[in-house]
Description:
By secondary structure, the chain is an alpha+beta fold. It has one domain. It has nine helices and 17 strands. The protein has a nine-stranded antiparallel sheet with strand order 1-4-17-11-6-7-8-10-5, with helices on both faces. Helix 2 (46-58) runs antiparallel to helix 3 (66-82). The radius of gyration is 23 Å and the shape is globular.
Amino acid sequence: MKRRYWLIAFLILQLANTEVAGQLLPNIEIINALKESDRHIANGKSHLALVQLHQVLQTKEAVTDQSILSHLYNNLAVVLARYNNFTAAMACFYKAGSVESKYNATKRGKRYISFFSTNSNYENKIKENIVNDEILELMVQDQINQKELERTEEFESELIQTASIVEAFLDQKEATHYALALLIKQPIPGQKNTNTGLGEVGHSFISLIKYNKDQSAVCKTFGFYPEEGQLIPVNPLMPKANSVIKNDAYHTWDQLLGKFVSKEQFEKVLEYIDHNIDNEYHLSDYNCSDFALTIAQLSSIQIENTVGNWPLGKGDNPGYIGQSILAGKYTNLDSKTKEGLFTCSNNLFTKTKK
Length: 354
């Protein structure tokens, strides 16, 4: 009798193991694919990573582990950000947090080569699908088809009408989410330098995103610049100039710090832009970094140690800001922690970018 009970128990256990194995097998394959995408991301092979992630996205219905989904969407966020597709990148970051799971980057040496990302559900967050997976899949496929990742300085940022930024968001469509990304191009990637010694000082700029209920989105990526054409360019001896705004949608960057913001915060940002976008440019007192940092502060993002010195002057600058982001010296004032912030490095420490 006991032997029969043991046999029945053994058969039940075998059936259970078979069922579990059947569930886990697709997840194991997906985990391996995600690990492969990790390696592509770490080595700067963003196109290969995107192809791999697109395949996983198409089979995600087989996933039973929520942390795997978090890993998938976080990796998509990093790669799409490196393509300057900030609308899709921030949407993926949101999706990663919506499954209420955390996924942390690995390090190369002492430096993060990827990202640190958490995104808890705040009370003011609207519980709606930010971008459905069908649209996201089309975005990813379109990016793969373009086959171009590198946006170099040959794509010079062009002047835009200052009023067009605020007007773009007054589209008469009901919004579900609002996001912001602070983007930093350091003079020397990964180093705290205010300039290269050859006149290059880097750049700080902003991307604002409004996601609509009808699954459309508005994204404006722009920066604050001194007006060109002066006989003597802006320099420490002559630090003032009229200002202009340029479209930085294709501008290269080294560090990104993003956040979803409330409707009230987003409206404060638009109001600030509307009233201050034509301010005079001053190398030490109100440069591109001052403009971008003020917008970040209105979004409850605090960054430490942003001021550096240069001959005959000092002030906020991309070198120091980028290094502070890289070192994790930032806080989401809404959560009093780093929670809810998305950070990403743009292949800073790899020799090959493909």
